[in-house]
Amino acid sequence: SQQGEEDPQALSIQEGENATMNCSYKTSINNLQWYRQNSGRGLVHLILIRSNEREKHSGRLRVTLDTSKKSSSLLITASRAADTASYFCATPTQGGSEKLVFGKGTKLTVNP
Amino acid sequence: DTAVSQTPKYLVTQMGNDKSIKCEQNLGHDTMYWYKQDSKKFLKIMFSYNNKELIINETVPNRFSPKSPDKAHLNLHINSLELGDSAVYFCASSPGLRDSPLHFGNGTRLTVT
Fold first, then answer.
1. For A14, A26, A75, B113, which has the most beta carbons within 10 A of its beta carbon?
2. pLDDT (tens digit, 9 = 90+) per residue, A22-46?
3. Environment class of residue A31 by beta-carbon count within 10 Å: exposed (0-12), middle (13-18) or buried (19+)?
4. Can you tell me the distance from the alpha carbon of B26 to that of B28, in angstroms, rounded to the nearest whole number?
5. Contact B48 A105 (CB under 8 A)
6. Which of B49, B60, B94, B100 is the mutation pick for testing A, counting most A CBs within 10 A?
């Protein structure tokens, strides 16, 4: 069953702007992961945030997690055309990463 | 030095045929997966193997049969292909530890005509 839902489904911004994508999930989790998928390619892991963390940074990426609202956000600052991709959140079931369940993704377009 | 490699990248075939997709990882991971991504980009797990042992088998038709000859390889064989099998199939691997991320191959686009 689907666990995460990203919002918005599509986002179009100009280079240099910030992009925020949201993810909501249904059940308790011990971590939440974000992945990027460039057109025609596989998913690439971006960042993992554990349930006891509220915020995590990696380069231009900032992820927040609110377990009380069962939601997470991914912020990409100072976006570049190369950030154009689909972004997915994923949460594990069965107590670990044995089974990662992905949302439907947000398609981000960064216009030069 | 590709970490997770799948072959073929594209597969076009007719209904009723049998086809296989191969996957190999050189990361030394214990766990491998098959995911299916439909035309709306929805990614759904199909199978997972840990050290050649099947550990996850989602509600997938019996026409789909995974095989893991060793922990570096996980192949997917599909019998009697149907139009609805058209999708992109992704292989992935992970150390299998809690909180470990997945490493994906670049996918095999299967088109059934």
1. A75
2. 999 988 888 999 999 999 999 999 9
3. buried
4. 6
5. no
6. B100
